[in-house]
Design brief:
Layout: E1 9-16, E2 19-26, E3 37-42, H1 56-70, E4 76-82, H2 84-95, E5 101-107, H3 118-129, H4 136-143, H5 146-153, H6 156-181, H7 187-192, E6 197-201, H8 210-219, E7 224-227, H9 241-256
Parallel strand pairs: 3-4, 4-5, 5-6, 6-7
Antiparallel strand pairs: 1-2, 2-3
Helix pairs in contact: 1-2, 3-6
């Protein structure tokens, strides 16, 4: 959405490191030193990066690569993360302390002990050991003679099924990495950036129990750490995206005027 005003929010899509990256901007239309604030939305799952293309580390490096390649260093940033996107934000802050972050909003943050959560206990075996089943159609296709393979690939249905299988396998691969790597909360990064962080925990979140909210609230009593009172579920984007967006705008309204 491109408007005539330099102060209207706009959305751009930029291809970066193998991923179609969505950018919400507040300021000028181009990514140069003239714009004021850039919002980077980091959802629960995203596209590929260069190294370990579908892995958790690759996702972190993709966001950092996008900022290095397309965003001037002096740009003020507001990062909004959901679920594993919050873990990615903390890693970005840790890996590049020079990022000019005004605020980082952590929605339903899965930043610790994921495999120990009620949902994690159910999904860990599936994500870590059963993802190879999703590769089975691709493996079977590779066994066919080339003449049959080329004919089969031309069929739209077959292509759709192959792409779907690959997508599921890659998503499960990243999910398995989350179960293995998201262990202890990064208290050092949180402590060093506490005034920039807003945490919003769900009251009935099976990926992030209320106990995790109580724990971080005890460790950081002066932090902006909130518990949902609106009944939003972890996957709020399915039915309450607009409500959550309005709520986030209220939180950061003052920072937009800096």
């Amino acid at each position: 959405m491109v408007t005539g005003s330099r102060d209207e929010p706009q959305t751009d899509f930029i291809f970066c490191c193998g991923a179609n990256t969505e950018v919400l901007k507040f300021g000028s239309c181009q990514l140069h030193s003239g714009h004021k604030i850039l919002f980077l939305i980091i959802p629960d799952a995203s596209s590929a990066a260069e190294a370990d293309v579908f892995g958790l580390n690759g996702q972190i490096e993709h966001k950092l690569a996008f900022l290095r390649k397309h965003v001037p260093k002096e740009t003020n940033l507001i990062l909004v993360g959901h679920s594993i996107g919050c873990y990615i934000i903390l890693e970005m802050i840790k890996r590049d302390p020079e990022l000019k972050i005004l605020k980082a909003v952590m929605l339903f943050p899965t930043i610790e002990r994921m495999a120990q959560t009620p949902q994690g206990k159910v999904m860990t075996p599936v994500l870590c050991h059963m993802r190879y089943v999703a590769y089975l159609p691709l493996f079977l296709l590779s066994l066919l003679p080339d003449r049959f393979k080329s004919s089969l690939i031309k069929l739209v249905f077959a292509m759709t099924q192959m792409q779907l299988s690959l997508f599921i396998a890659n998503a499960m691969y990243m999910g398995g990495q989350e179960m293995k790597n998201v262990l202890e909360r990064d208290n050092i990064t949180i402590k060093n950036n506490l005034e920039k962080l807003i945490f919003y925990y769900g009251a009935t979140d099976h990926w992030c129990p209320v106990q995790y909210y109580l724990d971080i609230k005890q460790d950081f009593p002066h932090g902006d750490i909130r518990l949902c009172e609106n009944g939003f579920r972890h996957a709020f984007v399915l039915d309450a995206g607009g409500e959550v967006a309005k709520m986030v705008v209220e939180w950061i309204h003052g920072d937009l005027r800096t």
